[in-house]
Amino acid sequence: MGDKRLNVLLVEDTASLAALYQAYLQDEPLSLTVVNNGQAAIEHIQQHAPDILLLDLILPDMPGMDILQWLHREKLNITTIVITAHGSVDVAVEAMRLGAHDFINKPIELERLKVTLHNTMKFRQLNQLLDSYRHDIEGEPFQGFIGASLPMQKVYRLIENAAPSSATVFITGESGTGKEVCAEALHERSGRPDGPFIALNCAAIPKDLMESELFGHIKGAFTGALQDRDGAVIRADGGTLFMDEICEMDLELQSKLLRFLQSGQIQPVGSSQQIQVDVRIICATNRDPLVEVEQGRFREDLYYRLHVIPINLPPLRERGADVLSIATALVRQAAREEGKSFVGLSEATKDRLQAYHWPGNVRQLQNVIRNAVVLHQGEWIELDMLPAPLDQPVAHNTAGEWVSQDTLPAPIVPLAVLERKAIERAISHCQGNVSRAAALLEVSPSTIYRKLQGWDNSHA
């Protein structure tokens, strides 16, 4: 990819300047085409879309901003550098909000032109590599999961390695992180995918009915037992039993579960008969199981019997750009189901979703998207369509606690420290994308690059 000559289109109406730029860039690994007005630029882009566009905002036949707006509407994959006169920085920032990668002030310093083009070519090539990588991973969702973040790649590898085994898997993670999706993935990739997958929520069943739900009962075993009934273990014979919220199980029943795990046999309530079953056990909890053991609410011997292969699902706030991948998929799914025309998220909405801490994780994100799709019309989910608490800006305080922007404290710190923290936080928020970070901060990417270089030199 590094040897590929990128096609660059320069829109410059002054012939002498165009000739100067062509001469200065003739030895660069790019193919430069020059047009002298906006209409010619649009026609050239329609016939031979360039990789990079050098766009003057002041053209003889139309404002350069009109071309940028057209590119934005058409969603063309062209990396744009705008050229603007001194004193029009606000216009340049607006251009970057429409998708421009960087801007250069007039009169253009030739060396600055070359450096900017080099940075832009590297940016484009890295983005192409990243897009290819994401396509390979996200081309097909992994067994119901969406996202290619590093924490989730670790989960995928664990699922692939653990699935063929019959060993018990213990899934942990906050509520809404997808523990049942993980269990279903383990079942589908196991050696028994044609067998039944039975899910049992231990927190949703009354204590006095739990044993019957798990092991079944015979007719007359207790008041209301009008006929024999198979429990979840029998129904899962030859397949997988997923026991969600396992830490909610009563201690007395835990001992019976342990006996079943040791022997492979169950005894329905009211029966004297032992029944042999072949079941792969997967359990899950949103609590810390070791804390439950330490506080006497969960049997230690049962914990070690179940905790053979642990899988921890990361919270949504630690999954980076997965938030947007999941949200976009949810928008399209909800739009199909509700008969709406939504296709995605606006840029402002993307920023708000990524800034939020998601205490309810993917389940909360599902509810937010469904609410917006059901109650509104349009093509893009806009910021004002989001329900509470996403309808308000969010931030975190110095203790790392997530709070409303209205209640965020404002400590007095040196300006240089505040500037550096703001830049570093923006880059982190944008997953290392300096151009997008610059747009959010309303500065030029070159400004951020100079700051980063200065900080690096200060440590040299």
UniProtKB/TrEMBL annotation:
Record-annotated Response regulatory domain positions: 7-121
GO biological process, one term: phosphorelay signal transduction system
Sigma-54 factor interaction domain residues: 145-374
SUPFAM superfamilies: CheY-like, Homeodomain-like, P-loop containing nucleoside triphosphate hydrolases
A GO molecular function held by the record: sequence-specific DNA binding
Species the sequence originates in: Oceanisphaera profunda
InterPro entries, sorted: AAA+_ATPase, AAA_lid_NorR, CheY-like_superfamily, Homeodomain-like_sf, HTH_Fis, P-loop_NTPase, Sig_transdc_resp-reg_receiver, Sigma_54_int
Coiled-coil residue spans: none
Keyword DNA damage on entry: no
This protein's name: Sigma-54-dependent Fis family transcriptional regulator
PANTHER family named among the record's database cross-references: PTS-DEPENDENT DIHYDROXYACETONE KINASE OPERON REGULATORY PROTEIN-RELATED, TRANSCRIPTIONAL REGULATORY PROTEIN
Modified residues (4-aspartylphosphate): D56
One Pfam family of this chain: HTH_8
rRNA-binding is among the record's keywords: no
UniProt keyword terms in alphabetical order: ATP-binding, DNA-binding, Nucleotide-binding, Phosphoprotein, Transcription, Transcription regulation, Two-component regulatory system
